[in-house]
Amino acid sequence: MPPIASRQSAATTAPTVGGEAAAATTYDASTISTASPRATEATRTGCQRFNARDNGAMPAVSQALAEFANQHRPRPAPGIEVIATARYVITLQPDFPIPGPNSVSYVRCRPDEADEVILEAHAIIAPRHVPVMWVLDPETQPPDFPDRLAAHGVHPDPHAPRVDVMALPIDARIEAPPVGGLEIRDALADAATFRMADNVAAEAFMGTELGDDPELVASQERRRLNGLASGIRYHLLALIDGEPAGASGMNVFPPGGAIINGGAVRPKFRGRGVYRAMVVRRLEIARQAGVAGLAVWGAPTSAPILARLGFVTVGWRRFYLDTT
Questions:
Q1: Are 195 and 67 within one domain?
Q2: How far apart are CA 218 and CA 292, in angstroms?
Q3: Fewest beta carbons less than 10 Å away: which of 36, 66, 204, 296?
Q4: Same structural domain, 14 and 116
Q5: In-domain check, residue 322
Q6: Average pLDDT along the chain
Q7: How far is CA 92 from CA 33, 89, 95, 107, 187, in A?
Q8: According to the model, what pLDDT value does residue 211 have?
Q9: Distances (CA, A) of 152 to 79, 122, 132
Q10: Residue 269 DSSP SS3
Q11: Each residue's pLDDT tens digit, 177-196
Q12: Do 203 and 153 reside in the same domain of the chain?
């Protein structure tokens, strides 16, 4: 199997909507990742440190990386449709029919246009038969857009109504002790590995595996092949003594940054450092890709873990679940 970081960069990739799962318990560590840091050229801003267990060697987040984390917009890619207008951006992934990957974001309209925007988005989405997430950011216009959504039966996501936009500079050092029996594989390498990673994520996020329905298996294979075709999509499977334990993803956008998502660990393997190890591996891949750092949307359960690894909060998003 080729090394995970051997794939070459391409111009497009899947957008990332949604954050990392609460999938690990952090603890004091002693061994530091040995990947060679790459100098960050952008002007630095201040850095936060949360407590004595935090990453004390954490460099500051640059303004450029903070802007990447907050302003990066979805791009079309194999298997992904993006409808971008001056008033909103709709992202649709028919082979990933869950809210989050299917979303409406970057809403910018006049107050008298708000209802029209919601109805227009619904008209575009309805033929795809997928639930979507409305993703609102600090610059959403009009400011009362959440009230406009509520009037159409769209309310805050009950699981993660708000997430933190977080960033980690590429020259950060994360303590990562060895994890006994750990192996991290490229989940895009073959269909079986990809399906194992998908099942890990399903168990971690939904409490159940996905099964082997033929239509589902076919859609998984299309997603895997589309991920390979994008050129800069990475998907990892972590195993402990050969048993699937964790999964995670990342999209790289040189030179701006890399967006990590979908980090999840099965309940029986939590507390062993699997989640931390997957963050370290993705940071190593991002260094080889030549980006300025990592960005992530940290859910309430994962943001404290990410903060202890050195991620700094640079913004926020609010999620509104739309099944209408």
A1: yes
A2: 36
A3: 36
A4: no
A5: no
A6: 85
A7: 37, 10, 9, 16, 22
A8: 78
A9: 29, 10, 14
A10: helix
A11: 999 999 999 999 999 999 99
A12: no
